[in-house]
Amino acid sequence: MTLKTRLSILLLSTPVLIFVVVGGLIGQASTSGGDAKIRELRVFDDVLRLVVNNYVEEVKVDRAMEGALKGLADGLDPDSAYLTAQQVADVQSGAPLPDGDVGLELTRQYYLRVIAARDGSPAAKAGLQTGDYVRGIDGRPTRDMSVFEGTRLLRGQPGSKVTLTVIRGNAADPHEVPLVREKPPTMVVSGKTAAPAIGYVRIASFREGVVDQVKKQIADLSRAGAKSIIIDLRHTAEGPLENGVAAARLFVKSGTLAIKGGREADKDADKNADKNADKNKPAATPPPNREAITAAAGDGAIDLPVQILINTGTTGAAEIFAAALDGNKRADLVGERTLGRAGMQKLVKLPENRGLWLTYGRYLTPSGESIQGKGLKPDVEVEDSDVAEFGAPASDTDPILDAALARAAKKAA
Question: In whole angstroms, how large is the CA radius of gyration of the chain?
Answer without folding.
Answer: 24
